[in-house]
Amino acid sequence: MSGATFLGMPSFPGAAKDALADTQLRRNLAHATATIRGKRTDAVGELDDWQELREAGRAIKERTLRHLDRYLLQLEERVTAAGGRVHWARDAEEASRIVVDLVRSTGERELVKVKSMATQEIGLNEALAEAGIAAYETDLAELIVQLGEDLPSHLLVPAIHRNRAEIREIFLRAMGEHGAAAPDGLGDAPAELAEAARRHLREKFLRAKVAVSGANFLVADTGTAVVVESEGNGRMCLTLPETLISVAGIEKVVPTWQDLEVFLQLLPRSSTGERMNPYTSTWTGTGTGTGTGTGTGTETGSGAGADGGEGPRAFHLVLLDGGRSDTLADPVGRQALNCIRCSACLNVCPVYERVGGHAYGSVYPGPIGAILSPQLRGGATESDRSLPYASTLCGACYEVCPVKINIPDVLVHLRARMVDGGRRRPVPKPERLAMAAASWVLAEPSRLAAAQRAGALAGRLLPGRRGRGASRLPGPLSAWTDARDAPVPAEESFRAWWRRTRR
């Protein structure tokens, strides 16, 4: 059940143009993001100290990144002391290889997964499939994406681009091929769809000996991993299997439990509009070490207990760099590593709401993806280089970010980097040639005057639609007028008017 990857997708402008033509997608997105925005606004409005919490979250993240090496070593020491094992991965290929080898060592050929952005980033499902290992997503939205052989399009709600009728068709068509089939007469009511998913996944939970998870946070001073979720599937994955493998980016570290307290207030309000997460699971090491498990909700569970009677018998933590060290070296761009994956910026972004997540060609869509993906992947592809321009710079993302990432500032910074990189190209791009021509014209008053006269003449030769502007500019300039009206040049320039009236 391995789906396609984001690699090789077109750059943002081309993908966005195709997405804009999908009216059903736009309706699905508009409804879903408006609902989430409303819930977030209500939840945040309950707190008088929300801005102070945001500042505290920003400060904790900045302090942690400044001393990341120290906290990572402390985390490794605490995880190891609690009976776990830490693996370091330089890139996606190494991380996937580590996980595949760990699963093979157990002799198992299947596993269950908790929703994890890091495992999507490294293409783990594809790597496992190549090794003959079946990975079953257990998050409801991820299950929808996997059964539909689709790609996630949102950080929090990967299937946000699907409506209930589409989900019902996916369940009826695909569930039986991979386990318990959808019941006859399945409707599209949320409760019915959730029940069908629960029946489908139950047998996998009870059978699986290996689970793979991500981690929302890693507490350095105790070696504790933390997963927050809304359905209880994570709790099942984290407690029932004998082997638990967690993959997390190195930036997920927080120094202490006191620091964690801040993020457990910021994250649920910013992501789901709730006062607290329905399920917050924490675990430290294995049943042979010191372990804890906490949670709220109707299905409670324990992590690895200190008496060795509960939870996984083996715990592996794979710490992923994957371009994060290079990102950390950029004083401006490193802000992207503060992200706690709440998705608030996606839900307020006018660009995301109209084109969806697939257009970004990345596991991380929306405004945060536009600054995070090009840095993690090195900006090597045309798709990466287009992402910093996938924004209107309206600033709405900065206003809602719970850790105060100045996304517009980073976008402008990355655009400047792209321009600087273009100056080193052996063949200059058309934009560079246009800017060089403009510089030459503006450097001499007589040249500017000649250009203005030529513009006025062009306006008369190319009459606009209903007098609004040129109907279509010639040559490469036609791409500009295909999407907007070109203004009609003034019959008399300001320079000519000044000379005529002030002489």
Automatic annotation (TrEMBL):
Where does the record place Gly residues bias? 286-309
Gene3D superfamilies cross-referenced by the UniProt entry: Alpha-helical ferredoxin, NagB/RpiA/CoA transferase-like
**Residue span(s) of domain LUD:** 74-286
TM spans, by residue?
none
InterPro entries in the record: 4Fe4S_Fe-S-bd, FTHF_cligase-like_sf, Helical_ferredxn, LUD_dom, LutB/LldF, LutB_C, NagB/RpiA_transferase-like
Q: Name one GO molecular function term.
A: 4 iron, 4 sulfur cluster binding
Assigned keywords, A-Z: 4Fe-4S, Electron transport, Iron, Iron-sulfur, Metal-binding, Repeat, Transport
Region annotation (Disordered) ranges: 274-309
Gene Ontology biological-process annotations: lactate metabolic process
* Source species, domain of life: Bacteria
In its keyword annotation, does this UniProt entry include Transmembrane helix? no
List the protein's name.
Answer: (4Fe-4S)-binding protein
- Which parts of the sequence belong to the Lactate utilization protein B C-terminal domain? 428-501
Report the residue ranges that make up the 4Fe-4S ferredoxin-type domain in this protein: 336-405
SUPFAM superfamilies, per this entry?
4Fe-4S ferredoxins, NagB/RpiA/CoA transferase-like
Q: What Pfam families does its record include?
A: Fer4_8, LUD_dom, LutB_C
